[in-house]
Amino acid sequence: MAKPAAAGGPATPEKKGKKKTFKKKERKHVTHGIAHIQASFNNTIVTIADQTGNVLSWKSSGSLGFRGSRKGTPFAAQQAASNAASMARDHGVRSVEVRVSGPGSGRESAIRALAAAGIEVRNIKDATPIPHNGCRPPKRRRV
Prior knowledge:
Elements: E1 32-39, E2 44-49, E3 55-60, H1 74-90, E4 95-101, H2 107-116, E5 120-126
Parallel strand pairs: 1-4, 4-5
Antiparallel strand pairs: 1-2, 2-3
């Protein structure tokens, strides 16, 4: 017959096992990248990718905790760009080509923040889509 466990002793044996080993996150070494700035009236998204289009880092005004109409401000765009630039610098990015799209107010401040974060801005291209008389307008309103 089994003896009952002592009142002061441990009921379960202590675990002696393997330590969890975590795979180290791989860092890419990219010196030149492309920074895409999507500036709408409501938000600003800054994405930094390598030459082939693989995303290295990204930040948006909303992901930083700005809510409502404050997401579309130049200050929020500046914060998003500086955070994305610091993350990209960990991958070795030293210079970027900037492609800006959208009519938002955070366009210029995001570019200035990239430059202030220590990343050389090589050239700036406006990639805002412009319709060349594309869609047919709705029919005339009758009141």
